[in-house]
From TrEMBL:
<dbReference type="GO" id="GO:0043023">
    <property type="term" value="F:ribosomal large subunit binding"/>
</dbReference>
<dbReference type="GO" id="GO:0050832">
    <property type="term" value="P:defense response to fungus"/>
</dbReference>
<dbReference type="GO" id="GO:0009793">
    <property type="term" value="P:embryo development ending in seed dormancy"/>
</dbReference>
<keyword id="KW-0175">Coiled coil</keyword>
<feature type="domain" description="Ribosome recycling factor">
    <location>
        <begin position="101"/>
        <end position="263"/>
    </location>
</feature>
<dbReference type="InterPro" id="IPR023584">
    <property type="entry name" value="Ribosome_recyc_fac_dom"/>
</dbReference>
<dbReference type="InterPro" id="IPR002661">
    <property type="entry name" value="Ribosome_recyc_fac"/>
</dbReference>
<dbReference type="Pfam" id="PF01765">
    <property type="entry name" value="RRF"/>
</dbReference>
<keyword id="KW-0809">Transit peptide</keyword>
<dbReference type="GO" id="GO:0032544">
    <property type="term" value="P:plastid translation"/>
</dbReference>
<dbReference type="GO" id="GO:0009658">
    <property type="term" value="P:chloroplast organization"/>
</dbReference>
<feature type="coiled-coil region">
    <location>
        <begin position="205"/>
        <end position="239"/>
    </location>
</feature>
<dbReference type="GO" id="GO:0009507">
    <property type="term" value="C:chloroplast"/>
</dbReference>
<keyword id="KW-0934">Plastid</keyword>
<keyword id="KW-0648">Protein biosynthesis</keyword>
<protein>
    <recommendedName>
        <fullName>Ribosome-recycling factor, chloroplastic</fullName>
    </recommendedName>
</protein>
<dbReference type="InterPro" id="IPR036191">
    <property type="entry name" value="RRF_sf"/>
</dbReference>
Length: 265
């Protein structure tokens, strides 16, 4: 509900204590006034003021009794802070989902895939680089992988990196390309890899919970600064939980898909 104040009422009458220091109201464009205000309307913690024929932008008031002043934050500034928090949350959640997918893709399922080599790094002239950045990786058929480096002098370094990985495959270097056969997984190995995938999925969910924690702290900070009310924070927290639940379901979906690939002979 909006409450209108008469122009005959001095702004100092908003104070509870008698004879307080003369207040000063600050506006976004540095316009300042004291004493009587032509008109003032208030809704929740926000006010709109008009001085003469000039209507000033709605502001949020925060009373500082010790100094007798009013500190202001525009609605636009508060909305911008909320939007920045929401943007950061979604960007970090999307990155978390991509990391989970990347980890899943690097685990072989018995069927050849270039993504199986995504995690391999090669010591290329003293600098660790991803294998896929210095070689073309393809799958001629469902049980073999072909690695063709852009620089043939890197063949030995690539071979060494593959041998040192946990892929469990033996590279065949013919001086031009590297070929690898993807062995079929045993039943025990499939179960073992399924446990690894489950652990990675849980790590992804922990990352999502940490993102939620950081966002809640940011909202609570705005509440302490009197930019958000307690009800605002509750509503935003509820919306945040809905987003978290959505991304949790995404992790469950990619996990079930990967698990099915691992356990299917």
């Amino acid at each position: 509900m909006t409450t209108a104040f008469s122009h005959a009422t001095p702004i100092r009458s908003l104070y509870q204590k008698p004879n307080p220091p003369k207040p000063l109201i600050c506006f976004q464009d540095d316009f300042r006034t004291s004493g009587n205000v032509v008109s003032l309307t208030a809704s929740a913690n926000y006010v709109s003021l008009r001085v003469g024929a000039r209507r000033l932008q709605p502001v949020k008031l925060s009373w500082v009794k010790r100094r007798g002043t009013v500190r202001c934050a525009t609605i636009e500034q508060i909305e911008a802070e909320k939007a920045a928090i929401e943007k950061d949350v979604k960007e970090r959640m999307e990155k978390t989902i991509e990391n989970v997918r990347s980890n899943f893709n690097s685990i072989r399922t018995g069927r050849a895939s270039p993504a199986m080599l995504d995690k391999i790094e090669v010591d290329y002239y003293g600098t660790p680089v991803s294998l896929k950045s210095i070689a073309q990786i393809s799958t001629p058929d469902s049980s073999s992988i072909l690695v063709q480096p852009y620089d043939k002098s890197s063949l030995k370094a690539i071979e060494k990196a593959i041998v040192g990985s946990d892929l469990g495959m033996t590279p065949n270097n013919d001086g031009e390309v590297i070929r690898m056969s993807v062995p079929q997984l045993t039943s025990d190995r499939r179960k073992e890899l399924s446990k690894i995938v489950s652990k990675q999925a849980e790590e992804g969910k922990v990352a999502l919970r940490n993102i939620r924690r950081d966002a809640l702290k940011a909202y609570e900070k705005l509440e302490k600064e009197k930019k958000l009310s307690e009800d605002n924070v509750k509503d935003l927290s509820g919306d945040l939980q809905k987003v978290i639940d959505e991304y949790m379901k995404k992790i469950d979906t990619v996990f079930k898909q990967k698990e099915k690939e691992l356990l299917t002979v």
